[in-house]
Structures are given as C-alpha cells and as structure tokens.
Amino acid sequence: MPKLYSILLLILGLLTTNTGAQDIDDLLAEATSENTEEVIETFKSTRIVTGHSIERMLAGQLDFRISHRFGTLNSGAYELWGLDQANIHLGLDYGITNWLMLGIGRGTYEKTYDGLLKFSILRQSKGKKNIPVSFSLLTTAAYNSLKWEEAGTLPQWDRFSYTTQILVARKFNEQISIEINPTYIHRNLVETELDPNDVFSIGGGGRYKLTRRLSVNAEYYYVFPPKNDFRSLKTYNPLSIGLDIETGGHVFQLHVSNSLAMIEKGYIAETTGNWLDGDIHFGFNISRVFALK
User: Fold this and answer.
1) 221-274 tens-digit pLDDT
2) Dihedrals φ, ψ of 71, to 5°?
3) Using CA atoms, how far apart are residues 23 and 73, in angstroms rounded to an integer?
C-alpha cells in the first residue's frame, strides 16, 4: 500500500506539471524505497590472498582452485630464486545454498587433507534494510598425513587441527573493501610439549580496485604470543600482498608472502619466514568457477 500511495503521488505530480525534475526524482526514490539492495563483490574471490574473504560460492556453483607457493626469493640463482621449489594446494569449494559453502582440499604442506564450512550470516545491504557490514563464520579441519617416524604409532585424532574464524567485512565504495578476522586455532599435535595447542590471532585484509578487472589485495595476521612463550619454533606474523586479475571465467591472484602454507593452521600459526631476511615466497592462485545448476 505505501508503494501504491507513492506511485499515485507521482502521477498526481506529473498531472499538475508544477513538479520539477528534482521533485520527480524524489518521488521515484520514495516509491522504490521499500527495496533492499545487497552489496555484492566485496572481494572478487573467496580468498583475499591466502586467507578467506567474506565471499562464498552461490548455490550450485563449484570453484576449482589451484594454489602454488614457491621457495624463498633469497634462495639465490641456483634455486632460480625459489621457482625450483613448489608447494601446491588443490581445492574444491561448492555452494550448497546461497549462505552455506562446503570445501575440500589437499596440500603439499604436511601432506594435509582439509575441509571447510563457511556460513554467510549477514550481508551488507542498503535501502529498506540497512546492514553496514557482512558477517560470516568459517570453520575448518585439517588432517596431517605425513608418515610417523617416531617410535610407536600416532593416534589418528592427534593428526587433526581445527580453525574457527569470524569474518567481518565492509565495502566502503567501488574501490575499497576492508575485512577483520578474529581467529582461533587448535592443534592436537605440536612439535614439543612447550608449544601451545591453542593459537589466537586477529587478521585484517583489504582490497583496492584499480580497474574493473584489476585490484591490489593485502592481508596480515597478528598472532598473540602465549603467556609463557617457550615455543620451540620461531614464528612470524604472516603478511601477504597480491594482485587480482579477473578475466571473466577465471580469477588469477599473484602475490608475495612470508608464508608457505595454504591452510589456516600453517600460514597463521607456523609461518617461519621473515620479510626482513628476504624470506619471501612468490605464489599464485587460479580460481575457475563452474555453474552446476
């Protein structure tokens, strides 16, 4: 009824001809004010660089992802500045509904099999329903399948690690999007009893769109050190900077990072490269989306 009332007002305004162009625009805006416009493409891909973005696959869409990370640039000419070494991760992400995405993967890092669920809880929108940010929940599990070299056998459950992550993002305009990711990681198996099983961090990422198909992306995770920091492994906070190229059917992501792993447990909790020492890995992701419905 309010919409019909507004349209009648618009017609009356036209008949009286005393209404100027600006007044007509105002009436049209009022007539359509009941609509809610969802903000789309906060990020172009489901990953900012290595970490997850707020985006998910829509119902019936399958994303096949190939991700590479090479050796460090400071490894020199003999290793062709890291290109002779490669870590790979293959993944499939599928949209079960418009708000639930399922993913599976297999990576070189610790010969890991991994799976994920991403729930899209709120989407940024404007109009009748004004929601300032998008909000999603990500949960993952990873299984280390490396051969056990120690004496005895390792219980299978000890090989699992889990990640829970909150994704909060806002697209400020056509060029700039920002995301914040509080993260909790639990590792059933750690190197020594001095290393923490639980790791907390807060990450941040962003996108600056240069052209319709080109954007600069970056992400950083601050890892909170444990109270008694006696870790056997010296780790650094992961920092990655990349370039997204969207070609229609594919998204190419080129980047540099001090992290080698491509699962949350690895790149957030176990990054051993230091940017200041030149421990920088070149890498890329290729994303190809198929519509199965």
Assistant:
1) 999 988 777 788 899 999 999 999 988 778 899 999 999 999 999 999 999 999
2) -70, 180
3) 62
Residue 242 to residue 49: CA distance in whole angstroms: 6
Tokens of 65: 């992802």
Ranges of beta strands (E only) in the chain are 36-38, 61-72, 86-95, 100-107, 112-122, 125-127, 134-144, 160-171, 176-187, 198-209, 214-224, 239-246, 250-257, 281-291
pLDDT in tens, 276-289: 999 999 999 999 99
* pTM of the predicted model as reported, rounded to 2 decimal places: 0.83
C-alpha to C-alpha distance for 59 and 46, rounded to whole angstroms: 14
Contact 112, 142 (CB under 8 A): yes
Cα–Cα separations (whole angstroms), residue 96 to 71, 119, 163, 251:
36, 10, 21, 21
Q: How many residues are recorded in the chain? A: 293
Chain center to CA of 162: 17
Residues 284, 254: contact at Cβ < 8 Å? yes
49: tokens are 């660089």
